[in-house]
Amino acid sequence: MSAEVKTKKFVVVGGGIAGVTCAEQLASQFPSDEIVLITAAPLIKAVTNFKQISRTLEDFNVEEQPISVLEEKYPNLKVVQSAVRKLQGAQHTLQTEDGREFHYDKLCICSGGRPKLLTEDNPYVLGIRDTDSAQDFQKRLSKAKRIIVVGNGGIALELVYEVEGCEVIWVIKDKAIGNTFFDGGAAQFLIPSLQADKAERAGPCKRTRYTTEDASPTYSRAGVREERSIPSTGSALGPDWHADMTLQGAQQVSHKVHVEYRCEVQMIYTSEEHLLRASGQSPETGCMPPADSGPWPVFVQLKNGKTYGCDFIVSATGVIPNTGPFLSGNSFVLAEDLGLSVDDHMRTSVANVYAAGDVCTACWETSALWQQMRLWTQARQMGWHAARCIAADVLDEPIDLDFCFELFTHITKFFNYKVVLLGKFNAQGLGQDHELLVRCSPGAEYVKVVLAEGRMVGAVLIGETDLEETFENLMLNRMDLTAYKDELLNPNIDIEDYFD
Ligand code: FAD
What we know:
With about 500 residues, this protein is α/β, with parallel strands linked by helices. It is built from 11 helices and 27 strands. Its cofactor is FAD.
């Protein structure tokens, strides 16, 4: 007589890249078990056309899809559209906003993050996170003459470059732009692109891209186009989120960006408060709005004493992990950045609860060449690894950390240049103990290599350098390059052949 097979119930929370990847992997690995994906948004983000370019570099498209697509693909996968309200870890249950309760054997939380706003509840301060907030931004921009962008990460970099027809005051706390991704040298290389009139847009962008609602509308299960309801917590946007959007302000200028370096926002005032301050015998220093541009609805006072009026402020100062509904009554260990702390099996500190993507913080002893950054590639890798770890735990099998966590790799595009970041590209954590090699040809390429103890540990490649695969191999092989240092960036040497 055959023993009764007890089915497992896996629940994944979050329809972003991490959650969908995890749920799909579980659904195909456990075809006889039930997988439930609970997500607050009406659309899910699916990874398509995945390509492994080299040992650690990968490329894929991300598409917004109706939830029915997933259910059609995996008969054992059910998608529930409702936000999780509460987790009762001890009972292995989750409650959703629509009043339902779900039991799980294994749970993976992939609820992403939300923008860290300068201030909550100020109608003039907006964050960009999902399709709806991006569309709100676009709408407000169309009537704007001047906006203030605060932050120095990827979103701010893309915004200041893409916005046209509107003056941009860019407030960064660092001494160079793009500090999250590269150093002062690379910033110098990119700055002329900000000042120049934007050339004709380059041909089709080679980088994979997200589609926004315009390109990928919502369909009901009957195939009828639906009006979207506004989700309170949609998935994060990703690369090229602005490609199908016109980011055009109300002025006839192409590109007008002024950077305030080493600066932070001190106070935000409404126009009434600003008038009171001005008439209250406290003369403002710095740049006042020009008399002909009309009154600004909001004013920002910076810590350097300057005050700028503007139409609205974009707060692009990072994300906070979306842990809210899961914490109460459970003993999750949180990392310093408030993410759910996970080990190398993507396990949180609560039994049978895993986490992946922007919501979690990698707290294992990471490889010397890898660091966590809240990026879409890492969301996919973590979602996939979490599913494999859940499977290994269920099947009582050993599992190693996936090879993708050996070397940090990120391919993106800034100011229309291809940008590849490898390893400790900014000499993160190396102190003074490193050497930099740089090759730069203005307007064409910028190559920086970080060497530590004669070995390549990081690189920034801007432009069509074609060096990524060779450098990736040199880093992974830990080759001693002391003897080749002078040749490494010699433009007359074919480096690929050299190390063949
Ligand atoms: P998310 O995509 O945020 O998904 C979270 C999911 O959880 C959503 O479906 C949400 O609805 C759901 N959810 C949240 N709370 C609940 C709840 N209580 N109950 C149920 N469901 C819930 N990365 C790059 O690599 N390159 C880039 O160029 C880039 N550009 C970006 C530009 C913008 C404007 C933004 C906002 C992000 C960008 N990123 C970029 C970052 C990247 O998009 C994220 O790191 C990645 O998408 C995170 O995926 P995730 O699955 O962890 O979270």
